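2024-03-11 09:14:02 DEBUG pipeline.ingest accepted 1 chain
2024-03-11 09:14:02 DEBUG pipeline.ingest length=498
2024-03-11 09:14:03 DEBUG pipeline.predict start
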Amino acid sequence: MYRLIFFLLLGLPAMAQVKLPAIISDNMVLQQQSTVTLWGWAKPGEAVKVEANWSKGAQSTKADAAGKWAVRMKTGKAGGPYTLRFNDVEIKNVLLGEVWLASGQSNMEFVVVRQNNNYTGVLNYEQEIAGANYPNIRMIDVGNKVANEPQEDFSGKWKVCSPQTVDTFSAVAYYFAKEILRETGYPVGIINSTWGGTPAESWTKQEVLENDKDFKVIMDRFRQQLTEYPEAIAKHKLVMEKWRADTSSKKGAAPREPMGPNNSKGPYKLYNGMIAPIVNYTLKGVIWYQGESNSDRAYQYRRLFPAMIDSWRKDWKNENLPFYFVQISPHRGQSPEIRDAQFYTHRTVKHTGMVVTTDNGDSLDIHPRNKKLVGERLSRWALKYEYGKKVVVSGPLYAASKIEGNKIRISFDHADGLQAKDGPLQEFMIAGNDQQFVPAMAKIEGNTILVWHDGVQQPAAVRFAWRNFPHPNLFNKEGLPASPFKTDNWKQTTEGKN
């Protein structure tokens, strides 16, 4: 009898030992009330059965000739923990909630606390760590990877927010998630895909850069750099050897390594390594903090940033994918043109929101430590437009101007209760057709501002906070600052080569 059963079992098809991507793992968060894609690998032709204990039944499929498989599964309302089974592989402690991608460069990468020679982190990080008991906030870091071709997977694992883990969380994303959790009660999963010092073209798909004439200069420059790289890196090594051997007290900073094929600043490299592996994963939206590395090419950023957003939306097959981003804070090395390019993106690309941070700058530090302010302001856009909360999303945003005799009247969106903090309005400038801007007088009249200068009798344009490190004091009654702006389209001469 036992021999018969044994031989019968031998005749049954074996269940596939499936392999799952890093993002489908213990402690994961899946987007609630949607249809999500679950995928992985197995032997070609092997059957894969997927079961979730939030729903009845199962999804079945077979791996294709390349060993890839995928299923689409409906999720229910926020909650958990749940389990997922993929044949004999079990994924535990799964939550259904809200999934957001946090991406960009170092200000989004900036963690709650980092230990180098001394502790550096967010303001009041000790108290923040002590109180970070939020098991319904989860974060997964996409490991830094430069790649020539789009990747299918990455290294990383989901972390449950606690005083023992929060120190390595993206600080901006952590504060954002706290507000979403607090206001909605929904679990929040953050996919943190960031790398400091990287330009927007690194995060943009190669086809987008190759097929747009406006980005030809980026690709041409990169190809030239690759051609010159062998000679350039050889020279760099010699320079570095001399630098290391120099023991003088006047030893300068090490020179930057020339652009090569494995440089994180290279076009499309981080898209391939750090975005492509997650495009199957259903998102609620994106939060983004980047632009510093494109500030010397700000006019180009007016096209590049929207093109990147559009490309990501196509990847996620969601033309309305919310995309909320942070305007670069005042800093001695950050031109007003980059903030204007970001404002332009908000005005011209639907379903975007921009966080103004002119009250959070540091002239010497490109990484302001008050990440709580940034994360909470990002959450305002999501809370209003994704979760229906009655919140004010922004400070005053320039909408229109009108010449009235020797004055110009400026109107704004989000202008309820305009106010000047700590004295008269500052940072307004005005010019005639000679394009010579001079400091201007400004006063609030209802929800508009009247700007003038006695020496400019025929005004043509106004600019506000148009400096690398301005000190504007225009806010709305919610206490949110006004974005820098200009009413003119005169060509700027402060921008470097594109």
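2024-03-11 09:14:41 DEBUG pipeline.report The longest helix spans residues 216-245.
2024-03-11 09:14:41 DEBUG pipeline.predict end
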